[in-house]
Design goal:
By secondary structure, the chain is of the alpha/beta class. It is built from five helices and twelve strands. The structure holds glutamine.
């Protein structure tokens, strides 16, 4: 049992994308995973995960489901959040190469460029040294991943590929340009749950 996990209700935005592996990670760590598709399901969650997938589609579905505004309010009130890949894009202050009507919550002071590591066939894996995570490097899977082109002074970079931040936090909001839910290594979810 991870500190913060016992009894924690963690919402997983379940409109599109890689939802199930996040649910599995949370359950393995002793948290309660709550799939979120409607605004009322946000009530009572202690934290939220925005999964990978397609940020343009998620943006549209967040609007059509009525989730965008209430989730923006909760994030503005300091709800801990972990956004992975498309989820990182949705939490960013500024989205480059997005659709013009694409929304983001702007709670992490980063500019991200979509798909900037390359196309689907340029997806890659890397072993990362992560600040605050002991032991073996974290094996990270990048799938049409966003690149962080700017990180503001409040943003703490936790891991890089080359010079580029790929894992960062601003307060209790974490973002990764890779998919930590796909490897079975639960250390990053555990680290996030410590903030809950
Ligand atoms: N390229 C996708 C986007 O722009 C993100 C890819 C992912 O989440 N694996 O939303």
């Amino acid at each position: 049992m991870v500190r913060g996990a016992r009894g924690a209700k963690v919402g997983v935005i379940s409109l599109q994308g890689a939802v199930r592996p996040h649910v599995d990670a949370l359950v393995e760590l002793g948290a309660t995973a709550v799939p979120i598709r409607t605004p009322d399901q946000l009530d009572g969650v202690d934290a939220v995960i925005l999964p990978g997938g397609e940020s343009t589609t998620m943006s549209m579905l967040l609007e059509s489901s009525g989730l965008f505004e209430p989730l923006a309010d909760r994030l503005g009130d300091g709800l801990p959040a972990f956004g992975t890949c498309a989820g990182m894009i949705l939490l960013a202050r500024r989205v480059l190469d997005g659709r013009p009507d694409q929304l983001s919550f702007g709670v992490v002071d980063i500019d991200v460029r979509r798909n900037a590591f390359g196309r689907q066939r340029d997806s890659f894996e890397a072993d990362l040294e992560v600040a605050g995570v002991d032991g073996e490097p974290v094996h990270a899977v990048f799938i049409r991943a966003p690149v962080v082109e700017r990180a503001g002074p409040e943003v703490e970079v936790l891991a890089t590929v080359g010079e580029r931040p790929v894992l960062a936090r601003q307060g209790s909001v974490f973002v990764s340009s890779f998919h930590p839910e796909l490897t079975g290594d639960r250390r990053l979810h555990a680290r996030f749950l410590e903030e809950v």
